[in-house]
TrEMBL record:
Key words, A-Z: Disulfide bond, Signal
Secretion signal span: 1-30
Domain of life (superkingdom): Eukaryota
Family affiliation: Belongs to the protease inhibitor I3 (leguminous Kunitz-type inhibitor) family.
The protein, known as: Uncharacterized protein
Length: 205
């Protein structure tokens, strides 16, 4: 025998689903994230993420750290030949054309070594000597959550933030320099790095 769902129960259930979906959408007041040319970041576009300090400090790339036999650690480039680092694909699960501040995002390198997982998506790994490190998939102690882009205190410059699903705590992505001088990207309770975005097709630094 089929049981009919009371209209009031169906209404409140539908309202609950609508609330869950819309609460994660960007606010109408949220600004569009722009690159260094002043153009809006496209959903699914590829960009170089460039820290905004020091001429010798470059973009992000991959490196093998610790016991890794494959480069799984996201680091800041210190090699002048690849100062801009590797292109990063910035995408949102929502069907929108451009990236807003505060929007839930996936960050993934546009390409990676053949030994690395596919897709080369950024994750956060806990319980490491440097704290919570930004790495590619492959570690057991991965923190479930998402990245987002927030405005910095400087106009038209930004910071990357990671929010853990459990507890809803967020931390800015910063730099931790190890004993070998490697600048690893980590989630920190302190001030993170201020960044700008450059189209992967752009020429020059």
């Amino acid at each position: 025998m089929n049981t009919l769902i009371p209209p009031t129960t169906f209404f409140f259930f539908s309202f609950f689903l609508l609330f869950i979906f819309t609460s994660n959408l960007p606010s109408a007041a949220a600004d569009i994230v722009t690159d260094r040319d002043g153009d809006a970041l496209r959903n699914g576009g590829t960009y170089h993420i460039l820290p905004f300090f020091g001429v010798r400090d470059g973009g992000v790339e991959l490196a093998a750290t610790g016991n890794e036999t494959c480069p799984l650690t996201v680091v800041q480039s210190s090699t002048s030949q690849i100062l801009r680092g590797l292109p990063v694909r910035i995408s949102s699960p929502y069907r929108i054309a451009y990236i807003n501040e505060g929007l839930i995002l996936n960050l993934a390198f546009a390409s990676s070594p053949s030994c690395a997982p596919t897709p080369p998506k950024w994750t956060v790994v806990k319980d490491l000597p440097e704290g919570q490190a930004v790495k590619l998939p492959g570690y057991r102690s991965t923190v479930s959550g998402w990245f987002k882009i927030e405005p910095s205190s400087l106009k038209y410059l930004y910071k990357v933030v990671f929010c853990a699903r459990a507890g809803g705590t967020c931390g800015e992505v910063g730099i931790s320099v190890d004993d070998e001088g490697m600048s690893r990207l980590v989630v920190t309770e302190d001030e993170g790095i201020i960044i700008r975005f450059m189209k992967a097709s752009s020429v020059g630094v």
